[in-house]
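$ ./design --mode recover --in tokens.txt
reading tokens...
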């Protein structure tokens, strides 16, 4: 078998066999196949596309390119949750403890962030002492003891995907549904979950900027999961504005804790309940979405969700007193108010620009080598549909550098669109994609 023939086959529109896909993934991961040949194949796939079977085969080949976690020693149905990413997206910090408190084990491998803010792992490292680097044995043991563990992904989890994504990023071949979907799902499948709930974002702060693309990506990923024997559901959600109010690592941890106390922003609570209910349904803990939501709401009211977060923090070496008293978490040196110069109703917020403001402050990474400042970020006070008067605060900047704060202020000011008339709030949940069909709300 030759790479030349595989490239030519896809260039001419033919379906690649499972063996051909395995050949190029194995060879590229070992370093036997050069970048220029894989670049040619990626461009052929970009234009000729892949069918369902090819996409499933590519996903599994990438998943098998490194470690495949065996979570069989953990009792129960292991349900994973993944978000395609957005601004202020801290739902894992709310959903994971709630689902674990309900009796469904949560064994989650999470990543670090690249761009406007950190990922789940970066946020958790904002809790003093919290250990995200566990051995597989420790990881499994923690889940069996407390029902939950969140760990950084191992260096050898789907290594083919890491190589391929880096190559696609510099060869203009990122924006292909099959390649995006297989990239996400290869890591989820390698992480060992029995079932997967996907939060697919749509809007200015998301990878998918429009609903049609988000539903298409959701469908692709659900089909992959179903084709390889994993029960998979996708929830398509709004990212036309930041989720919740906090954008920035420690600020988001505090907001997640407030939500578990029943005091957080309504949109973060609503999305957490929607995703968590799907997880309980797949984990066979609830018989319906309504039953799942009710169970999760009760866990918030009783404080058991917050207690489960404290258990996880203690089990992973963190200072659990910070969960009770969030003032113990690291704070930025000063705050800068962003004051409205207009009056009316918030018509739009460029979520990606709010993310860029957080990045300027130091909350995210411009490169993999960038060091995150966990204390900085933005608290958004006005969301789409809210009334705003001249002189009111649009947002508060938490910063450690005045020059960066002033730059972030200008970005935030330009991110807002104000209307003279009443504006309807955007719909948070846009639809559900399951193996048996698509529901658009």
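writing sequence...
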């Amino acid at each position: 078998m030759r790479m030349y023939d595989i490239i030519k086959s896809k260039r001419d529109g033919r379906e690649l066999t499972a063996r051909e896909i395995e050949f190029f993934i194995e060879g590229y991961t070992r370093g036997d196949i050069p970048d220029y040949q894989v670049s040619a194949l990626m461009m052929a796939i970009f234009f000729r596309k892949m069918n369902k079977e090819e996409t499933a085969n590519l996903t599994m080949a990438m998943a098998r390119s490194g470690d495949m976690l065996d979570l069989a020693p953990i009792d129960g149905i292991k349900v994973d949750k993944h978000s395609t990413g957005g601004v202020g997206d801290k739902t894992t910090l709310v959903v994971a403890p709630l689902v674990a408190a309900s009796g469904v084990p949560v064994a989650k491998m999470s990543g670090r962030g690249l761009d406007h803010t950190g990922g789940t792992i970066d946020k958790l490292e904002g809790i003093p002492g919290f250990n995200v680097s566990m051995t597989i044995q420790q990881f499994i043991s923690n889940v069996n003891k407390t029902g939950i563990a969140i760990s950084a992904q191992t260096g050898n989890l789907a290594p083919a995907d890491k190589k391929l994504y880096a190559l696609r990023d510099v060869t203009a071949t990122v924006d292909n549904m099959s390649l995006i979907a297989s990239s996400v799902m290869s890591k989820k499948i390698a992480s060992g979950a029995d079932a997967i709930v996907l939060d697919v974002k749509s809007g200015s702060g998301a990878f998918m900027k429009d609903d049609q693309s988000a539903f298409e990506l959701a469908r692709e990923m659900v089909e992959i999961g179903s084709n390889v024997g994993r029960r998979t559901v996708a929830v398509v959600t709004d990212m036309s504005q930041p989720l919740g109010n906090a954008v920035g690592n420690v600020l988001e941890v505090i907001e997640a804790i407030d939500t578990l106390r029943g005091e957080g922003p309504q949109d973060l609570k609503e999305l957490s309940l929607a995703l968590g209910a799907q997880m309980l349904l797949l984990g066979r803990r609830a018989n319906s979405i309504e039953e799942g939501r009710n169970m999760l709401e009760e866990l918030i009211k009783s404080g058991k969700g917050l207690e489960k977060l404290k258990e996880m923090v203690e089990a992973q070496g963190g200072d659990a007193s910070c969960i009770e008293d969030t003032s113990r978490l690291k704070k930025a040196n000063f705050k800068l108010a962003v004051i409205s110069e207009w009056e009316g109703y918030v018509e739009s917020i460029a979520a990606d620009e709010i993310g860029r403001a957080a990045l300027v402050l130091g909350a995210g990474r411009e490169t993999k080598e960038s060091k995150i400042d966990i204390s900085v970020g933005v608290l958004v006070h006005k969301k789409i549909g809210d009334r705003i008067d001249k002189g009111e605060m649009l947002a508060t900047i938490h910063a450690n550098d005045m020059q960066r704060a002033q730059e972030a202020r200008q970005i935030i000011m330009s991110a807002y669109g104000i209307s003279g008339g009443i504006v309807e709030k955007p719909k948070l949940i846009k639809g559900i994609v399951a193996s048996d069909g698509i529901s658009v709300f």
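exit 0
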